[in-house]
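Before relying on records like the one below, remember that each one covers exactly one chain. Contacts with other chains, cofactors or solvent are not represented anywhere in the record.
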Amino acid sequence: MNHRIKDIELLRGIAVLFVLFEHTRFNLIGQPGEIFAYAYSHFGFWTGVDLFFVISGFVIARDLIPRLNRTEDRQGFFSVAIRFWIRRAWRLWPSAWLWLALLLLAAVAFKKSGIFGSLQANLDGTLAGFLNYANFRLMYKFGFEELGPAFPYWSLSLEEQFYLLLPIIAFVCRRWISGVLIVLVVLQFFALRNHSLLLMQTRSDALLLGVLLAIWSAHRGYRRLEPIFLQKRHWVRFALLAILVAGLAVIGTEQPENFRYRVGVVALISAALVWIASYDADYLMPDNPLKRVLLWIGSRSYALYLTHMPAYLMSRQIWYWITPAGTVFDQTYNLRLILTAAVLVIAFSEINYRFIEVPLRARGKKIVDRMGERQLQFQT
């Protein structure tokens, strides 16, 4: 069940590129040129987060839900749930804490430029990210107080809250879980989320759709609806991927902000992409150099998510040092800022992936495996 599906990794790459581009606004590029101004006004790349959510729900639930379903009592449930939580903590938390600490350190070290924000905002953001309530912090402070560079941690906090509850819901609901999750998705789809920060910062429909897709993938109907017509039509694969990805970007723009159901539609488009990818048959894109690049990006998606804000701000800090005092970073500096940030993002993410993320993920797996061995010995 730990097999990585190439098309899922492809979607991870696209999702993180959406997020990286969305966050260049204000954080890296202060005065956009014509191209960036057009992109910012005609596309909304925040939708990459919801694509991430569907991917996350599918990948995690296709392993977790069957394990929970095999448990027969409370003891068995807690054994599976605790091991899941431990592996997830080792996989995610050390990297997240490291970059929170580095952002806080940078705010102190580079206080003169103010590029990394105030110390108070960084302290607040660090605490919120560390304790996984960053989504609620964003909800209460957005538009009123400085958020600081740790604001992207809101989505990680939301996921951690979701995966704390999911095993409990799965155990309590048992065979009714699909129905319960469908009701939760429908309720959120028709909710007025465009005008509610609470509903936006606690949205779970994309995560739930990923879980539902994972549950459905174990049933016959899933195979009957496999899009096998894509097997020999490479151009159709590219066209379908382009249309769906473009749909995410277009519907995320500010222009249809009064469209009541746009957040739900974003979740549904994301679910459609993950559904096509889930068959592990390269239905979204055949093997080619572009796909290999996107697969590399997808494999480092978590590291890129954590390191892009430090890289963007460090790029600005470097050019703050290089240029004369009082320099206004207008659009003529955008290319230099972007290239510097790109180098830093790649370097930071690769270091994090190789020396922190992968070793600690393996460490968490060993701990969980030992727990399973001790439990087996106890039972026998």
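The chain has one domain: 6-375.
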